Amino acid sequence: MTAVRSQDVGVDRELAIDLYRTMRRIRQFETTAGELFAAGELPGFIHLSIGQEAVAAGVCAALDDADYITTTHRGHGHCIAKGGRLREMMAELYGREGGYALGRSGSMHIADNTVGILGANAIVGGGIPMAVGGGYAAQLAGRGQVSVAFFGDGAVAEGVLHECLNLAELWQLPVVFVCEHNGYAEMTPVSKHLANAEVTDLAAAYGMPAEKVDGNDVAAVLTAARAATARARSGAGPTLIEARTTRWRGHFEGDPQKYRAREEITAMTERDPLTHWRDVLHAAHGVPPAELDQVDADIADLVGAAVEAARAMPLSDPGGLSRHVYPEGAR
Ligand SMILES: Cc1ncc(C[n+]2csc(CCOP(=O)(O)OP(=O)(O)O)c2C)c(N)n1
Description:
binds thiamine diphosphate; Rossmann fold
């Protein structure tokens, strides 16, 4: 994993700022959600991807609206990077009628067909076969779409991943498997749940190309994602990307994190993907910090507006619970 310089990988100033903007949207949305949760405003469970933003931003920058993604319980970042709307997402976290799933599902089941978000998924590994299904549909449609499965290292030993790698390679499906390797499955470190933590080794067993990247470096992630999506679009089949990254927060908000030392978390924050990218923007593209501060302020306003809009919506109506579950008239 060598450091990637943005100017060497075809990232111009505009795209570089866009990548920053995406990461900042994720960071701001999740920081705000964490605060709201701590204040008791959000029901249920939330899992934050703070520290992992470069994976979502880098991969989704290689995708179009027509491409598909599936994600996990830790999926806010992927949904935001794929074009999910902040207002509907925040409203879903609040359990409001104006949320993506009418406020009935919360954080872990966000979906938006209009931008190819086939769904977040609370079942570890559960989104992977859906992405392979998306890849199969894309292959049949013949429109050059790609389907991406985001999953964590906790899904690596799940049988479903292996079945999916096999089928995707066998059928040469346009799928990109993206493992966000953050070193933990809930409270369990990979050393205690994976016999082989080199996730790229799995792909070799199925004859699939694979690449391991620094998941805190958005240019490195984008470069790997561009290669994988180009391969998929050309009909040359799937790729596995292993993005090594860091989960700064607990498994869920409220997790006291007794299983790891404070210093480990501090060390992670020293590899902040946003700070790194701000440095690149300045050094390689001459973007002054004040310009990025303005980006931050604008995004804080956007997230603030999403919160206000969600607060003003009615709570999810229990009377309509079976709506969208059965076809009208079938009850
Ligand atoms: C099939 C299944 N088994 C167990 C769980 C409980 N569970 C929820 S998240 C999680 C760990 C997931 O770890 P990982 O896939 O690495 O994702 P991360 O939380 O690190 O993003 C587990 C075991 C579940 N939701 N589904």
